[in-house]
Amino acid sequence: MTPPKQSSLQPSQLSTDQEAELLRTRDISWANKVGTPSWKLARGMAKLGRLSLNPSDSHAIGIEIGRHSMLVLLIDFTGFICGRWHYTYEFAQPHIVLEHIATTLKLIATHLPEKHSNGLQGIGIAMPLNMDGWQQLLGRHNSDAHQYWVDINLADEIQQQTGLPVQVIKDTSAACIAELVLGHGQEHGDFFYLFFDTFIGGGLVINQHLHLGLHGNAGAFGSFPVKMSNAEKPIQLLDIASLHQLEQRYIDAQLDPQAAHDQRSMQMPFLSHTQAWINEAAPAIAQALLHATWLLDLGIGIIDGCCARTLQGAVIDVINQHLQQSNWEGIMPPRLMLGSIGEDACALGSALLPLYANYAPERDLFLKSVI
């Protein structure tokens, strides 16, 4: 794949001729109907009136590396998903991940016309900060998976493989970026964010900025301690409110665990097991939101994930029931809403990173803290 042509000019320094090359006379609407681009070249728009970036001139790749699967997206400048590739594996190992990435990049090279292949701005990688963590929770008690990720710098490996700039960010932070830029973040500048996946995780947006914290863990709801009535000491939220536990309930009932990720979860024979999981997960999530609100006083909580929206809605209903039973004297409870992106959020958010790095008027919107 031919690396993108690099320019010594920042977006704010583009010449009139360069602006004219990037822009064309038509407005761009979001093909996925989740809003309008907040990151168009402000100078170009101001100079040239009702013009916007030619979406086919700039592309980016977003890769979500999960514990059991990997998703690769090719997007254009408007956020439209031009290509989507999904892979599954028993558990993540670097050599497997790199093989899938190499295969996908070859497909992308044939997918893009030659005149647009030089417009690839880079690759964003979304993955857990601790890919080797929580092995016992996943049922791998004697696993040596922790050894696979110790001595590898995945970003360097991919950059050497592709010649493209690579940025890495925590998976749920990437999902939060997608919601901030393309979803409810356009109307709400302060919110908690929770995302259901193999493990539940989250993010934190304050004053329209994603906050990652010193170690990249701000908004790490999965690690939040919660007290359960049948437990001697607090457990982590991810121990009880992750899709992994829902999958395990289905396995124990000799049902397809993949139903946790689709509409079957809200249908028989899965529904009774789903409801039992909701009845344990929702009170724990309510605890986490209550304590987070005590500290940060944010008015909105957005919940999304790799599962059916009807399942997410059912969880929100039960969370709200428990929030109403809590003592809110002195503070205001957050209003909960469904996320607007869905299962592609992590990969989509990571794909936005190279576009922001090259074109955003506010280059530090979230890049200043990216790990």
From TrEMBL:
Coiled-coil zones: none
One of the protein's GO biological processes: N-acetylneuraminate catabolic process
Protein name according to UniProt: ROK family protein
GO MF entry, a single one: N-acylmannosamine kinase activity
Lineage: Bacteria, Pseudomonadati, Pseudomonadota, Betaproteobacteria, Neisseriales
Signal peptide: none
